[in-house]
Amino acid sequence: MSHEMPEEKLPEAHDASQGHEVAPHSDPFADPGLPAHEPRRTDIDERAAKRAERQVSLMFVVSMLATIGFIASYVIFPIDKIVFIFPIGHVSALNFALGLTLGVALFCIGAGAVHWARTLMSDHELPAERHPIEADDEVRNDVIEQFKTGAAESGFGRRKMIRNTLIGSMALVPLSGVVLLRDLGPLPEKKLDHTGWQKATPANPIPLINMNTNEPMKAEDIVIGSLTFAKPEGLEESDEDFQQNIAKDALMLVRIAPEDIKDKNSAELGFGGILAYSKICTHVGCPISLYEQQTHHALCPCHQSTFDLADGARVIFGPAGHPLPQLKITIDEKGFLVATGDFDEPVGPSFWERS
């Protein structure tokens, strides 16, 4: 047997101060809607709009000048110059100037953009209902039209002073980062173009020194199928800059039967089938140490670049970009191997200043 409960009535609200009852509200927080749009001064006064335009442009111009000041500071102030700045104290003049000018350049771009948006761009507020993430064609077309309308109302095309100064300031700011690349180290100049072998001439050759025995090398000591490493005479491991120099001067020698040498120019740079190549891989500069005597292939252990030493050390496999540079060698009156010039090309990986 079921019983229906009587419907419970909401108690009526009672206003004690007025002495009468108040009916309850089903929606006590009604949507008040958007306030009436109030035009800005720049919307109704063209002179105010022109003044705001000049202010925005001035900020962008100041940003450009600050970027130029950043570059000038980098050139003018030595890295070890210390100055006293109140109330900071003693600071590096270079760091202070770079931070100040870069900060002003970035701040003026941001402040100019904000001032532009608040005074000259459209500020009408439009309500929009929430919708699914994926938009239909109608919504997409509406967004495109709104974008075009917003671009037109921003005055970007009409206000050429703002547009040109904004483009100028945005184009100059990245130069600050380019200038900072100078801190990566001193410019290489021609240091990468030549090695320690560059002092060698036919009249004043440089002997080849065996890396293992530290003794001069005779041609008769190099046998077919062997791989030997050498350095220029005068370069010692006790030298302070040994590692820096050996990274360019390291040499590997192989002896190949003359009839097996495919490249005639390579044969002319060698002596009696003995060929001298740079030991530094032309990919990322790893030392090459693996040699297959049957195929005359040298393999870099880092990324498997493979060079055919019988064919001018050309690349036959791997990421290396060009052949191993070759050193011209001969023998002196005592039969010792000597170099008569530098490598025919810069050693190691390619670089943007490479001639």
Describe the protein's architecture and organization.
A seven-stranded antiparallel β-sheet has the order 13-8-7-6-5-15-14. A four-stranded antiparallel β-sheet has the order 9-10-11-12, with no helix packed on it. Residues 1-6 have low confidence and may be disordered. The protein contains eight helices and 15 strands. It has helices spanning 41-44, 46-76, 93-119, 137-154, 160-172, 174-180, 242-249, 264-269, and strands at 13-15, 20-22, 82-85, 89-92, 206-210, 227-232, 251-255, 274-278, 290-292, 297-299, 306-308, 314-317, 326-327, 329-331, 337-339. By secondary structure, the chain is α+β, with helices and mostly antiparallel strands.
CATH architecture of the largest domain: 3-layer Sandwich
Give the neighbour order of strands across the main sheet.
13-8-7-6-5-15-14
Q: Give the overall average pLDDT.
A: 87
So what's the CATH class of the largest domain?
Mainly Beta
Domain unit count: 2
Q: What general form does the structure show?
A: elongated
The share of residues in helices is 25-40%
Q: With helices defined by DSSP (H or I, 4 residues minimum), what is the helix count? A: 8
Low-confidence stretches: 1-6
InterPro entries: QcrA_N, Rieske_2Fe-2S, Rieske_2Fe-2S_sf, Rieske_Fe-S_prot
Subcellular location: Cell membrane
Organism: Kitasatospora atroaurantiaca
Membrane topology: Multi-pass membrane protein
